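Sample intake sheet
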Amino acid sequence: MKKILLSAIALTIGTVGFAQVGNIGTVTQTGNDNAGIVTQTGDDNTAAITSDGNRFKNNITKWGSWRTAGASGTMMAEGVTQVGNGNEGTITQAGYVGVTGGSGSAGIGQLGNDNKATITQSEFLVHGWSGSNAAFVDQVGNENESLQNQTGRAGSSYFRQAGDNNYGESQQASQSRTKLEQQGNRNRSVQTQGVGNLQTSDTYQNGDDNIATSNQSGGLYNGSVILQDGDWNTAGVTQMGVSNTGTITQTGNDNFGTISSIGNNHVGAITQTGAMNEAVITQNQ
C-alpha cells in the first residue's frame, strides 16, 4: 500500500519516492524557492516535511567530521531518507515572514528499524535580523530517538547516533551550535541553549547507559564539552553568564561529574579515569 500527499505553492519543489509497502510520505510547502525530498525503502515508514516560508532547503547532503572511527564523511541526511522498517521522520519549518534573504535547512537519515527523528525550525526573524538555521540527524540502529528544536536565527544542530535505544535532544533559542555523537546503546543526551548568542555544546558518548546534559540557558560565548567513554557515566554542565568554559572527560564506568558556572569568565575542567569517581565544580560570580 502506498500513499503520497504532495502540496506545492508558489515556486516550491517537492520530491517523494518510496519502495516496498505501507510507507507514508507527505511534503507540504508554502512560500518561495523551497525544496524537499522524501525517500523511503522498507515497510511502515512515515515521513513528513512541512515548510511555511521561503528558501527552506531540505535537499542537502551534509558532510560531517566525527570522532567515531570510520564515521567521517557524508551523513545520510538528505531531506528525509529512511531505510528499514517502522521509522518516523518529521521536519517542520516556519518563519522568515517578510524576509527575502536567508535560508533554513534540515535533514534526517535513518538506517534501521523503529527510529524516530523530529526537527522543528521556527521564528527566524528576531529583532529585525535574518539568519539561517541548520539541523541534521543521522541515526543508524534501532529504536533511537532524536529531537531538535530551533527558534531564533543562525542556529546549528548536528546529531549522529549509532546503536540502539539512544536519545538525543537539542533546544536552541538563538545563534548557537550543538553537536552530539553517541555510539552504543541506551545513551541519553540533552542540550539546552537559551536566549543568548555564540554558545557551543559538544557531547560525545561511547558505550552504554551514559547520561550527559548541557544547560546554557542564558548568556554569551559559553562553551561546553562532554566526552564519556565507558558505561553508566553521568556528566552535566550548567552555564549562565558570559565566556564560561566547561569540559568533562570521563573514561571508565560509573563516574559522575558536574560543573556549574554562574557569572563570567569561569573555567572548569574535570578529568576522571577508572570507576566510581565523583567530582563537582561550583563557580558563582
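Comment: Residues 166-284 form one domain. Confidence is low (pLDDT under 50) at residues 1-19, 68-76, 97-102, 125-130.
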